[in-house]
């Protein structure tokens, strides 16, 4: 996330039919103004699951990612959230929000304005303070296993300290006892249990 915030590259978070890259995918019980909406498309997961989406521009402050840019969990994040929450691209969402806070989004904004492929009138984007390109999915069209199939870790671009803080939250402390020997050594089952609780995208790094 910090990498995105430090150097936002528009081409990596723009128009794409890939669920694991491109503009963040958001959903929620929100009716956006038609002037903020663009072309319709599909987001395709690694397992070929297809989800209909529509491009839109929203203010960065209107988006709720599962984690903040420092990797800490966002306590408001839930399916019951009344606004727009990120369901794929949480790390991208938090990184772009942080980019606006750091003042690193000039190039991103310029390319968003010049890009015609999303189908949103540049005059509408010009009216916005901190525009972010997103793909909007209707709540009933979001797969229940979206986190797994979108391969989202919520920790994109974290440094070692931030990743360690996030991994600590995956520990099931109450269940660890059964994975240690009498001498206090962790058994192979303990490693397997910990890795199984990590997001899919992080398991490959273990």
Concise description?
The chain has 206 residues and is α/β, with parallel strands linked by helices. The protein has helices spanning 2-6, 90-102, 106-114, 122-126, 146-149, 160-168, 188-196, 200-203; strands spanning 25-27, 37-44, 50-59, 63-64, 84-88, 131-136.
Describe the structure.
It is globular and about 70 Å long. Strands 2-3-6-1-5-4 form a six-stranded mixed sheet. The chain has helices at 2-6, 90-102, 106-114, 122-126, 146-149, 160-168, 188-196, 200-203, and strands spanning 25-27, 37-44, 50-59, 63-64, 84-88, 131-136. By secondary structure, the protein is of the alpha/beta class.
Give descriptors for this structure.
single chain; 206 residues; 17% strand
Helix amount: 25-40%
Query: What shape does the CA trace take?
Result: globular
Q: Which structural class best describes the helix and strand composition?
A: alpha/beta
Query: Low-confidence stretches at least 5 residues in length (pLDDT < 50)?
Result: 152-157
Number of DSSP strand runs: 6
Strand order of the largest sheet: 2-3-6-1-5-4
Largest β sheet strand count, sense and barrel closure? 6 strands, mixed
Output the number of helix runs: 8
Radius of gyration using CA atoms only: 18 Å
Mean pLDDT: 84
Give the CA-CA distance, first to last residue: 20 Å
Q: Strand-residue fraction? A: 15-25%
Give the SSE string.
HEEEEEHHHEHHHH
